[in-house]
Amino acid sequence: MSAAPEQIAxxxxxxxxxxxxxxxxxxxxxxxxxxxxxxxxLPAWRGRGIYxxxxxxxxxxxxxxxxxxxxxxxxxxxxPILRRLGLHAVTTTTPYVWxxxxxx
Length: 104
Description:
The radius of gyration is 16 Å and the shape is globular. A hairpin with a 5-residue loop joins β2 (18-27) and β3 (33-41). It has 104 residues and is an alpha+beta fold. The chain has a single domain (5-84), classed as Gcn5-related N-acetyltransferase (GNAT) (Aminopeptidase). 20% of the residues lie in helices and 30% in strands. The chain contains 2 helices and 4 strands; from the N terminus they run βββαβα. It has a 4-stranded mixed beta sheet with strand order 1-2-3-4, covered by helices on one side.
């Protein structure tokens, strides 16, 4: 963040002085894309619309900066919420785990 603060926005939701959710928005230069990352809500605070509100707030920030396309690598929990907000899946990702070989 310190190297390029204009390329990232970090949002948090607080209740009673405690951070209950956090998310960030990463701008991709002048590409017209931005990425939504880290939409995490504490389990006790789920189901109250906080994640949805953070998605909406980040989308509004993106639009204000001229972004036309958002990228989200969504979990199975987030995907239905994103669809209800009007986002559409255009592809999928396949995660891989690489474990480097032990050093000799």
